[in-house]
Amino acid sequence: MAKVIMVQGTMSNAGKSLLTAGLCRIFKQDGYRVAPFKSQNMALNSFITEEGLEMGRAQVMQAEAAGVRPSVDMNPILLKPTNDVGSQVIVNGEVLGNMKAREYFAYKKKLIPDIMAAFHRLEEQYDIIVIEGAGSPAEINLKQEDIVNMGMAKMAKAPVLLVGDIDRGGVFAQLIGTVMLLEEEERSMVKGLIINKFRGDKTILEPGVRMLEERAGIPVVGVAPYLQIQVEDEDSLTDRFSNTGEIGVIDIAVIRLPRISNFTDFNPFETMDGVSLRYVESVAQLGHPDMILLPGTKSTISDLLWLRQNGLEAAIKKAAASNVVVFGVCGGYQMLGELISDPQNTEGGGTVPGMALLPMETVFENEKTRTRVSGQFAAVEGELQELSGIPLEGYEIHMGVTTLKDGARSLTGIRNHAGADRENAEAVQKRDGAYRDNVYGTYVHGVFDREEVTKAIVTALGRRKGLDVSEITSVDFAKFKETQYDLLAQGLREHLDMKKIYEILEEGI
Question: N or C: which end of the chain has fewer CB within 10 A?
């Protein structure tokens, strides 16, 4: 059976996901079969496995770092917020239903058998499991029903590494305060403390580290630096949304919708020198980009109304009329149409006009489309004609069905693989997306991951400006991520006491 270790944090965004990924990479490099695990994840960034099941992207990132195929067993419960007090509850990759927070709080312990069944399946396949907690284990109003922090550590018999974020200040109070608020049994499970995101002269910190160890009675197993690497991060906690870097030769603006999901679709553009990728939420921030990207969203109708109310819809339509390229993915694609209907109350009901940039209509249905796809761009005309015939792969995850009208042409030809269509033929052929002139849309997440796709788009945008952008290089995004996981592991090896961490792993609790 697998050895187990758990990473918990003093707060959200303390760096648990990244440290979990780094440990997964280190253990992989050391010759172990390793898997990540998080019993319950709350995120709008999700992924579809080869089996057509839905899981959080953070555990997909960690699985990539571990060099293993993502499995829904690594994240048996996914909560996708639909509003401030409710979420869609996904169990073992399939939608259980929508629940308000209080309703789920009373229900969640019924999911422990599903959590432990997934965990035990991983135990049988791997040498090491690195478990990630959520938020803080010291939320005293939630501890009674906990299934993701100390509650999970107890069920998995996992020793805990507790992580504090020094970049946000008060790291000693974070760590000692958290330890003090734990029950005696829980404190005994915390075997190591980690100070994360440190910048500066470590020798100045050393007296504080010694005092921390004395007061907490727990060894500090590392002071991890603020690592400048590019890997996928949690949605609402990402630093990407506050990026205010210089405008590049090619400027791309992503609309930061209130319920933005799967913004990781656009990460490949960040790897390209000379290209700026900005997240904007007002007309003043929009400026004059070369391309506007409309991302996915968990609440298409309400986010469309938000666009309408704050003036961004009018600004996007004005830009489109000036031949600026507009590209929507998933919910952003749905917004580009003429009408969005929700007759079965999937998102709260109602019918609203879309942005009318593409001649199509979307109707929400209760059944969610979940499938991996591959295919290629059609013989594309218009501003992005360089995309014609380029292969693509990714996945679909949406509730709506979109019907094209006269004047819209399909953007891609794709094949569904397994997933929702696994009872049908091995691969179901279909058309996806739409385009007209300089407006494009698709349901395929991951559509920009291939090097040829981002290069073609940047080339087309440069051509429109009369610029030679041949020196702007794109990268194979999968290979690029591998280099980042290696840099992460290298950085952690240098600053964590891996000998002590291996001792904690071996001794257990």
Answer: N
Annotation says 445 is catalytic: yes
- Please identify which of the residues 330, 398, 417, 495 carries the catalytic annotation: 330
Check if the beta carbon of residue 477 is closer than 8 Å to that of residue 450. yes
pLDDT of residue 483: 95
Question: pLDDT for 322-371, tens place per residue?
Answer: 999 999 999 999 999 999 999 988 887 889 999 999 999 999 988 888 99
Q: Is 330 among the catalytic positions?
A: yes
Phi, psi of 447 (to 5 degrees): -65, -25
Specify the pTM: 0.88
For residues 140 and 181, give the distance between their C-alpha atoms in angstroms, rounded to a whole number. Answer: 8
Q: Of the residues 24, 398, 417, 445, which is catalytic?
A: 445
DSSP element (H, E) containing 416: strand 412-417
- Cβ-count burial 71-91 (b if 16+ within 10 Å, e if not): bbbbbbbbbbbbbeebbbbbb
Q: Rounded CA gap, 251 and 456, in Å? A: 15
> What distances in angstroms separate CA 383 from CA 194, 364, 457, 459, 486, one per listed residue?
50, 30, 9, 10, 38
Residue 469 three-state SS = coil
DSSP codes joined into one string, 203-256: HHHHHHHHHHHHHH-S-EEEEEE---------STT-SGGG------SEEEEEE-
